Amino acid sequence: MRLSRSLIPTLKETPAEAQIASHRLMLRAGMIRQMASGIYAWLPTGYKVLNKIAQIVREEQDRAGAQEVLMPTIQSADLWRESGRYDAYGKEMLRITDRHDRELLYGPTNEEMITAIVRDNIKSYRDLPQWPYHIQWKFRDEVRPRFGVLRGREFLMKDAYSFDLDYEGAVRAYRTMMLAYMRTFQRIGITAIPMRADTGQIGGDLSHEFHILAPTGESGVFYDAAFETGDAMDATDVDAFYERMTTIYAATDEKHDTAVWDTIPAERRREGRGIEVGQIFYFGTKYSQAMDFAVTGPDGQKFYPEMGSYGIGISRLVGAIIEARHDEAGIIWPDAIAPFKAAILNLRQGDATTDALCEKLYAALGADALYDDREERAGQKFAEADLMGHPWQMIVGPRGAAAGIVELKRRATGERFELPVEEALAKVRG
Amino acid sequence: MRLSRSLIPTLKETPAEAQIASHRLMLRAGMIRQMASGIYAWLPTGYKVLNKIAQIVREEQDRAGAQEVLMPTIQSADLWRESGRYDAYGKEMLRITDRHDRELLYGPTNEEMITAIVRDNIKSYRDLPQWPYHIQWKFRDEVRPRFGVLRGREFLMKDAYSFDLDYEGAVRAYRTMMLAYMRTFQRIGITAIPMRADTGQIGGDLSHEFHILAPTGESGVFYDAAFETGDAMDATDVDAFYERMTTIYAATDEKHDTAVWDTIPAERRREGRGIEVGQIFYFGTKYSQAMDFAVTGPDGQKFYPEMGSYGIGISRLVGAIIEARHDEAGIIWPDAIAPFKAAILNLRQGDATTDALCEKLYAALGADALYDDREERAGQKFAEADLMGHPWQMIVGPRGAAAGIVELKRRATGERFELPVEEALAKVRG
Q1: Which of A150, B44, B141, B354 is a Cys-bridge partner for A319, taking CB atoms 3.0 to 4.6 Å apart?
Q2: Is the ipTM of this complex over 0.85?
Q3: Residue B316 has pLDDT above 80, yes or no
Q4: Structural domains in chain A, sorted by start
């Protein structure tokens, strides 16, 4: 993308409404704009990041054996009356009346709808298990939306649901999803820790939250250093993996157990702060019973399938990752989800040799590069590249261009390399 | 995907609610289920088709020079008061009140919102042109939703918007989008014809609709045979292309001009029926003036950018394509958007040799294949493969398997080929 032709409206000033780093940086880097309280438009760079995260989530859901569907945003109130949650949900549910005075709502989650879909289309135990998921916008009418996309009203969530024959199947689904989540976060390039959680409004017997470590996180977290190294994920068997994940110590301050904590060697104790970006639930037959979803078993007897649900806040992750990865100058994107691998900074726009080398780099990298082809001074180009957080900056001035040399800067470390064109390209491509 | 583990609930009976072929076939093939009047859930095969169409649309928008953003589904009523359309829009607009009694709505289109975004972030003529687009769910509260996804209430649309310096720029945007649309439909594998149209609610001076030819179409259409051959799209220059598109005769019955029609050689006259799947508009400064979006020009004077908007109904296209491509037995997908390239039909599930060959084919094709591994009789497998419309069927029985032979059936033509495994795979891969 050529910056001169892009809708990437960076800001020098920090907008007054933004209280936290990710919100400030997303506005300043031109990733999002607020359209109404807690409702955002995603501009090109923001949307690229959102999509890259969604794609990694999708690939790991598919790999786990889940299958993608897409449920609508608008739901019928009657569905929620079946589960008894219509009245229970309260003011966070955005309730809507259509032209025929039918009661609708903007879905805040989809347990009811997916249960109805599977119930109405599955008759036999032979059709189980079913693990559908979708990636769709949700709405929760927060009383006080804030912190940008970390607590927006319209937000993008991946929600998966598992329908299994029995308890053992449901446990396997739960553990498989935990593994899928940890792989997802690892591929994104951030450290996430699963922690035992309350089941809250969803209900059920077992739940884990996934917290990203970030100094500005909302919860205090206590954890074993094993989570930092990634060793914890080495298990190849899903049960061994789950065993390991749930025995290594990790807890939010609400659930912190000092007696257990004291048994951990001091050099492995870590305290930090976390941002919740996902949660998984096992809730047995709560919804299948409430919505009368019974299936005929091998013995001819009806039974209620065992269920779980599994959410990742995709739009929330964008903010959470920035909380975990930024400095004074701006965002530091992990390579896997950066909007562009590199920015090409032309320090002498209009100089034939410099322009020619920049065009050559841009042609070679294509959609992986943002080409800063504006007639702006070098200082501004450096500052905006740091702000936007591209993993690499390819700096091209007239002297280097004449010698066929590109200066590379690695955003995360500040390292610099002076390299011939092909070597520079190879390094950026990884 | 293994059919035994999939959420593809095919139906033998035709649902009573479905009046037209595409609606019947989408329900029977298990692509969609209605969740509320005019509101559908997309099951795995339906969602794959929807995504493949969206991806072709996206690639051609990018190629045309447009840039992807994502605007939210929920909009503020105040935005629509600025353009004067809030009251004008009538009951098709789904109006919503949030917990703080603020007036919101579910966006039926985005002229107002995108104008506000560009207005608030662009100050100079140097930042023009801007051609943003997004692919997002919209809602129109139709009084009588019907025909499945052809006239749903919640529907997926690609809408692009152009903001240009002057009339010439706007005309270039309009023509470039027409070319992008024709390339999009050609890649999908259907014949579409641009026809001069009224501007309706959007307003403006110039508009074309794009109609897909289908015997069950809503409008009668009269057109020159040049549109059938694809010759009309050979122009490489966008202006020459536009000239050709708008001089070859094509008109809906509403706009049909028998005087011109009579001048066309009889052997080139075609009459058929069409389904509208897209529309483009040039409307000048209608919205930039109403919403006071003025930019400083090279001469220091303020001016209002020239605008256009460009829609493709992506969910509607799924239904329209089926109207154009089906027979008594079911859907006939064009290769480019089929949910799977091939179905592998195992005619003797449980026979070791047959199973082994099917698994080999499935491993080779991966996500491109739907493997019918159910213990059902051959007749049912054939019928459901025809219904679902996979471009190829790979039929494997015990005799063929023992000889290493696969029977291929081409859905569109009924042609059959008996081929060794590698040749069969090569044919399916195209």
Answers
A1: A150
A2: yes
A3: yes
A4: 3-330 (3.30.930.10), 340-429 (3.40.50.800)
